[in-house]
């Protein structure tokens, strides 16, 4: 299975959602999308044998 990126905007969200990103994934949060009280959900798996896991906001 090859890695690919799909971006779509489901009706319940106001900002795009990225699914199945290339690894490592580098992306940006759209300007103005994060305000006080915003919820950012990061979901995924860390491969067995990994020595670290990191994300920067």
Describe the structure.
0% of the residues lie in helices and 11% in strands. It has a two-stranded antiparallel ribbon with strand order 1-2. A hairpin with an 8-residue loop joins strand 1 (6-8) and strand 2. The termini are far apart. With 57 residues, it is mostly loops. It has strands spanning 6-8, 17-19. GO terms for molecular function: carbohydrate binding. InterPro entries: Galectin_CRD (IPR001079). It comes from Oppiella nova. This is Galectin domain-containing protein.
Q: Please give the alpha-carbon distance between the first and last residues.
A: 29 Å
Order of helices and strands: EE
Summing up helix and strand content along with how strands pair, one would put the structural category as little secondary structure
The radius of gyration computed from the alpha-carbon positions, rounded to a whole number of angstroms, is: 13 Å
Number of strands: 2
Overall geometry comes to elongated
Biggest sheet details:
2 strands, antiparallel
DSSP helical segment count: 0
Mean pLDDT: 73
What is the strand arrangement across the widest sheet? 1-2
Unreliable spans are none
> What percent strand?
5-15%
């Amino acid at each position: 299975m090859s890695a690919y990126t799909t971006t779509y905007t489901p009706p319940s969200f106001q900002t795009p959602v990225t699914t199945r990103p290339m690894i490592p994934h580098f992306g940006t949060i759209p300007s103005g999308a994060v305000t006080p009280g915003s919820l950012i959900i990061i979901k995924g798996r860390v491969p067995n044998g990994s020595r670290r896991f990191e994300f920067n906001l």
